[in-house]
Amino acid sequence: MKQPISVLNEMITKSPAYSNASRHFIIQAGKLSETKPVRFEGYLLTEKEKEYLIEMVSKKLSKRDIPVDGEVFLDYQFSLNGGLTDGSIHVYNF
Q1: What's the pTM?
Q2: How does pLDDT run across 29-53, given as a tens digit for each residue?
Q3: DSSP letter string, the chain
C-alpha cells in the first residue's frame, strides 16, 4: 500500500489543478481519496507550478502524523506573476 503522501502527490499530478483551489481528501483505513473540490477557480497550473505544489505538500505533510482515518484540506492560490501567494494544509483525525 502506498503512503498517503505519495498517493496525494499522485492525485495532484494526474488531475487538473487550478490556481485558486481548496481540495478535500479523506483517509479511511489508510487509503486516501479525494472528495468533490470545495473551490476550483482560475487558470490551470503549469507543470512547474504543479511540481512546486507537490514539493510543498510533501515537505509540510512529512513533518506531521498522518492519521489512519481522517481528512486533509489543501488550500492554495497562485498568481500569474508571483507564483504561490497563499497556501495551507490542515490534517484532522476522525
Answers
A1: 0.84
A2: 988 999 877 889 999 999 999 999 9
A3: ---HHHHHHHHHHHS--EEEEEEEEEEETTEEEE-S-SEEEEEEPPHHHHHHHHHHHHHHHHTSPPPSSEEEEEEEEEETTTEEEEEEEEEEE-
